[in-house]
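4.2 Preliminary Data

To establish feasibility before requesting continued support, the project team ran the inverse folding procedure on a target of 232 residues. The structure was first converted into the token representation described in Section 3, and no sequence information of any kind was made available to the design step. The complete token record follows.
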């Protein structure tokens, strides 16, 4: 079976130049090799065991932009994560100290690495930012599976008022289906924009339609403000 990691590796091999491809292969080999444990502390009152060094793959994770270029660095970082398979306790500091680009990669990889809700705080942190690339990355399959209804609804609204396409929201149709509270929030938001003389995003009508029962989709009355065009 082809995995996400296989697909990313095949893609990166097809687009990177020879030096970048060689660097990536070395980095992936290192990421796939478990680090050696530091020497155990001697019994008794001897010195403590040495601090565990940072795994080499984490250094490569930070280097990816310089080695692979900004166009391909996100994919290279995600592939490193999928190869190293860090747990949520490792991902948290990697996210906290990372650049926006490094944080995007962590968010994109969450659904492959963290089966439970331990990484939800990372998603919530990204959704509080004004960086639209982080907001989009945060709303991938992991958020679709693990965000609570209140946080998820507000994340959809944030997409609408920051201009993040709702196509970025994984599981949108499934989670929006029959969500009357989301429909109410969308109507309120559309009314507020209309009252302020502003247009209503086209994506709002798309999401509102998804909240209706399947038989009514495509036949709902428009939200306040009607169909819209982009603001000038």
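Position-by-position output of the design step:
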């Amino acid at each position: 079976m082809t995995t996400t990691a296989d697909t990313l590796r095949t893609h990166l091999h097809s687009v990177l130049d020879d030096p970048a491809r060689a660097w990536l292969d070395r980095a992936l080999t290192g990421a796939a090799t478990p680090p050696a444990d530091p020497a155990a502390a001697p019994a008794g009152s001897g010195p403590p065991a040495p601090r565990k060094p940072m795994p080499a793959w984490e250094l490569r994770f930070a280097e990816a932009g310089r080695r692979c270029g900004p166009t391909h660095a996100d994919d290279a970082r995600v592939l490193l994560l999928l190869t190293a398979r860090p747990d949520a306790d490792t991902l948290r500091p990697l996210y906290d100290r990372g650049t926006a680009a490094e944080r995007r990669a962590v968010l994109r990889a969450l659904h492959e690495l963290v089966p439970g809700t331990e990484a939800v705080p990372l998603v919530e942190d990204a959704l509080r930012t004004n960086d639209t690339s982080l907001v989009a990355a945060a709303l991938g399959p992991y958020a679709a599976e693990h965000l609570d209804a209140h946080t998820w609804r507000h994340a959809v609204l944030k997409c609408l008022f920051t201009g993040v396409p709702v196509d970025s929201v994984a599981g949108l149709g499934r989670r929006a289906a029959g969500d009357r509270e989301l429909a109410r929030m969308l109507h309120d938001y559309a009314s507020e924009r209309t009252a302020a003389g502003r247009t209503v995003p086209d994506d709002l009508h798309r999401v509102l339609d998804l909240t209706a029962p399947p038989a009514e989709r495509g036949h709902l009355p428009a939200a306040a403000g009607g169909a819209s065009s982009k603001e000038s």
